[in-house]
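ok, trying the design again with the full structure, not the truncated one.
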């Protein structure tokens, strides 16, 4: 479907200060790129043509920066406020003539989970994506659109662009779940390792549970988002694209199921760690008790022979020999018995 869109040429554009990066624009007609890199102020001109689909991307915009886009598309100030505000929940809100979408893209690096917020305004023939930072790879999304063999843009609708966006977001959530699953395997290896690093296990298991909770909080609302889009009474998704959205919904269910399964696995690992720690403590106590019993033998014998009363062998060399033999025999006997019973 063409090359990647270039950054908008902002020379003479009143919107040249939009966001922390210049806006990116593209227009399709009959599945082919009609134009790209045009000023934001020309979005309404392209939308005035009934056979054109327009995409606009903004990165890190401020509230006043979105006024141009709001004027071009007639957006409600509440939706614009949600697009600028951070930490909005994942949701899909419907307005007159368009919808507002808010989702989160996870990224796992070094065991830490980062969430990047992405918003979108969805009209019949326009899609506006709003990114809070550069954590969301917009070029990867564009490649999905360009390499799609389905020709989803041959009809003037933004539903195909929205499908590519949701499919990419859910795929990234699946990748994050897989990365956390690998981290859970690492924690499992540490739990059953001979070294048994307790502090390392506690730190990594706590971080893993925290990451799973954060991922679950942004992944579960995706079910509601897809359910709303799949409703037959809403004109957002045309019937030909319904199977594609259903596939994304199935992947969303997988994210939720795997996240819940991982949370249960981590809880089981923590219980196993406590059980193993208790077993190791029992092993240590058995060994300490066994050695204490062995050490008690020479203590008892030497104490007996240290009495200040006459006894067989008192003040004689034979008494010393007898006490030494008793100590060696009894200690060896106890050691053998404890070893047979696996107490040492």
């Amino acid at each position: 479907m063409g090359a990647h869109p270039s950054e908008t040429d902002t020379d003479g554009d009143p919107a040249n200060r939009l966001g922390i990066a210049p806006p990116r624009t593209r227009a399709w007609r009959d599945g082919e790129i009609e134009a790209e890199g045009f000023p934001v102020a020309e979005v309404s001109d392209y939308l005035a043509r009934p056979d054109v689909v327009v995409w606009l991307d903004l990165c890190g915009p401020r509230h006043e920066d979105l006024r141009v886009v709001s004027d071009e598309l007639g957006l409600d100030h509440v939706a614009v406020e949600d697009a600028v505000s951070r930490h909005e929940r994942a949701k899909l809100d419907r307005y007159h003539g368009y919808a507002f979408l808010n989702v989160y893209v996870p990224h796992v690096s070094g065991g830490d989970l980062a969430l990047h917020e992405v918003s979108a305004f969805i009209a019949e023939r326009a899609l506006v994506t709003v990114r809070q930072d550069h954590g969301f790879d917009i070029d990867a999304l564009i490649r999905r659109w360009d390499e799609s063999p389905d020709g989803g843009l041959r009809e003037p609708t933004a539903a195909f662009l929205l499908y590519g966006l949701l499919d990419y977001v859910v795929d990234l959530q699946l990748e994050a779940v897989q990365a956390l699953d690998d981290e859970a395997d690492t924690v499992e290896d540490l739990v059953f390792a001979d070294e048994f690093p307790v502090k390392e296990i506690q730190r990594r298991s706590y971080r893993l549970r925290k990451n799973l909770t954060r991922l679950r909080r942004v992944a579960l609302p995706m079910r509601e988002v897809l359910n709303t889009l799949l409703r037959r009474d809403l004109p957002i998704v045309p019937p030909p694209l319904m199977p594609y959205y259903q596939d994304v919904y199935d992947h969303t269910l997988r994210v939720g199921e795997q996240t819940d399964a991982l949370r249960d696995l981590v809880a089981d690992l923590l219980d196993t760690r406590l059980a193993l720690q208790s077993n190791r403590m029992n092993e240590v106590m058995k060994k300490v008790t066994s050695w204490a019993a062995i050490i008690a033998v020479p203590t008892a014998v030497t104490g007996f022979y240290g009495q200040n009363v006459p006894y067989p062998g008192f003040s004689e060399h034979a008494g010393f020999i007898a006490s030494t033999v008793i100590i060696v025999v009894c200690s060896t006997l106890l050691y053998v018995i404890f070893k047979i019973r696996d107490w040492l």
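Keeping the full-length input from now on. The CA atoms of residues 188 and 269 lie 7 Å apart.
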